[in-house]
Amino acid sequence: MKYCARCLYPANHPLKITFDKKNVCSGCYIHEEKDVLNWNSRKEKLARIFNAYRSKNSKNYDCIIPVSGARDSYFVVHTVKKEFGMHPLLVTYNKQYNTYRGIRNLAYLRTKLGCDIATFTVSPERVKKVTRATIKEFGSIYWHCIAGQTAYPVQNAVRLKIPLIIWGAHQGIDQVGMFSHTDEVEMTRKYRKEHDLMGYEAEDLLGIDNLTKKELGVFFYPNDKEIEKVGVRGIYLNNYIRWDTKKQHEKMIELYGYESALQHRTFDTYNDVDCFHYSDLHDYLKLIKYGYGKVTDHATREIRLGRLTREEGIKLVRQYQNIEPNLQKTKLFLDWLGMTEKEFWGFANKFRNSEIWEQHKKEWQLKDSVISHANDKGVEEVRISKKEKKCEFIISPARIKNYQEKQYILVGRGWIDEEKKHQESKKTIFFVIASENRVNFILRTDIFKILKEKGYRLVIISPYKNNPQFRDEFKGSNIIFEELCKAGKVADMINNLRNEKLKINHPKIKEWRIIHGQIKRRYKSQEHAIISFLKEGVKKIILGITPQKKIFWDFIEKWLVVNRCCRKLFKKYKPDVVIMASAGAGRKDASFILYAKKNKILSYAVDNNIDVFEWRYLSTPRDVSGWMLFGENQKKEAMELQRINPKKLITTGPVRYDHYLRNFKPLPRREFFQDLGLDPNKKLITYGAKIPIIYPQNADIIKSLKNISEKENNNAQLFVRFDPKHDPLQYGTLLDNIPWERGEEKSHRDHVANLLYHSDVIVSIGSTFCIEACLVNTPAIWIGFDGYKKHKNPLKSYRAVYDLDLFQRIIKTGAIPLVETLEELIKEIENYLASPEKDTAERKKMIHQEYGVADGYAGERIANYIIDQLEKETLKK
Ligand SMILES: [Zn+2]
């Protein structure tokens, strides 16, 4: 597909696009007019038009403005009424998929601007019948909205004899440069049919699904005679005013408190907040038909206005384009319509354009999109310079906090009588994010997204506070960044002693503690050993005189562990909830738990490790208000091994894997392999190397895997991924002809997901990496031997770790084989390379067994749980 060298539009843009010699599209070409036309004189021209239509005796309205409440409605009404002093009648077609936020925006629009409004609500049953037909006929859930929005104003103009209709932007001009601004094109029946209505007038639907004239009549455009009699004309404001929807919305937020909201499939938070489906299911159908979505429209617009570079635009497209529709919203739609999911996608997929899509591993994949055209020839030559550094879309405060959009509001009042009563005091949430992993597992999930959207004040406390990319990714008007500081020596010491004294007595934990100790002890230096021997001595004396009681240590910590930094943050923000990634297994979290407890603040541990209760808490964990767990197995462990009160154990499914289960869309193999310096024609064996302190025999394994990959029959290649803090340079020339990467630099979940997906087999050592591979149905193998070495003492071998119940449980499912010799490793790899589908069912079974409800909505459940708890707290007060 051909793409514009300046913006992101493809040659198949449904509004028709043309390209010049330099591959610049007609839309970009016409857009240049925005910076050369004399807009003052154009505005004067508009004033002259308005003056001609001003009602002489004030008996009638001066003009009609079609509004939805969102998408430039405020700006158009504000301009026409406040700037030009016209007396408009607002008309709105009820699209039925209304969000409550949309209803509020519309209510405030008419009230604050003091306008009359005519609303047209067609019987939902009739709308459903029409929508069923348009889905079958041309895959659209939105036809009735557009048909209604474009017919109802004209019908009113004819009926009420108000000849002037005022529209916002003409999409044909703004997107593809169909006309020059100076052509001053006006509304026509032809454009409406061909472009707005996808070629289908209401009349064309007669007979389809037995639709009658009576049922479709409301969508009929008045006939030419009627229109001529009144002299109806529709003008577009973007021919007279330099159009910049972002700037316009920001002014409206400032003037009238227009409510913006996060959108599912695009970064623009201003435009379609009134609808459940426009930026979601409807936009996904556009992707199916044309291979691009709203995000391309929005990024293109911002590129042309000089707020994004083409590359930044492509990055945004990559981020949003392939996100699948929100399951719950789609379900809402299908329940409303009375259609099953299977039926719906059956129709929708008929319109999947086979020139754009292909099937791979049973998944539809885009053959091509603008993502792979970042480096097209000629881009540099036609580039427009950036005029603004940032392109930030803000989330303005919602008039009702903590409201969950779950149902369509067919008719609603929208105005909030006593705003203040409903407006809760602004709740504050602490996110304690100590490592890159936790960024992936907490901030890059719905937990953060939903709580951010709710308008709570979120304080991210993290060592990445000053990292510009980090800030850029998570910023927002309700987001604050703070530094995560160290605990201090006394706190460290007390923490140490406490953990020593409060070791858990369960026989299993005792056993694991021995293995844990072995692993840690093996690789410490002699010098280190002497120092720690002395330290141990002092420790033993103190431990001898302190009681082994939790209550005692809670008291000590409460009064002796003073972390100035932490105390300052609690004082400054007075948080209502603290969200952490562990309940004190990482020392940095511990002080936050202590302070939360001391100040009676809710605290939640979202620990994302499958071995959390068996392997990470070898001493009694600290008290939090709740633990968010994967599934029942974890709950059982928490109760049995750690004696945690079951009331505090909340099973939510694996939030760390939501991305895989719902949003993940792999990159094309070729593109991904090129990035990593790999050959797309060869199979890929990926080795996840553990740090040497835990597994010192990496070199042996790398050598063996290299040999296996080079065997002629296997036609494979080796790739090595090193854990963070694992320095590959120590392997010297061994890595000369082997591509590799480090976890520190390549930690983004998208990257990891692609690596797992495109690997043909994953090999690792007791690592979650292998479990993750199963989520994308890639075979994985656990190594349970020590390279070329053989330990006499079984406890010295890493093999001992696999005796943990959790490993045994997983191995038993047959999802991830444990190999205990090099021969077994070779055999398993070759089996998998030859038949990649092997063990597919086992992998699925394992995911289900370990992670319970693995539907991709764990983050949403966690966020909703926290919101509920916050609401309960408010009621108590
Ligand atoms: Zn262009």
UniProtKB/TrEMBL annotation:
Gene3D superfamilies: 3.40.50.12580. Coiled coil: none annotated. InterPro entries: N-acetyl_sugar_amidoTrfase, TagF_C. SUPFAM superfamilies: Adenine nucleotide alpha hydrolases-like, UDP-Glycosyltransferase/glycogen phosphorylase. This is LPS biosynthesis protein. The lineage of its organism: Bacteria, Candidatus Harrisoniibacteriota.
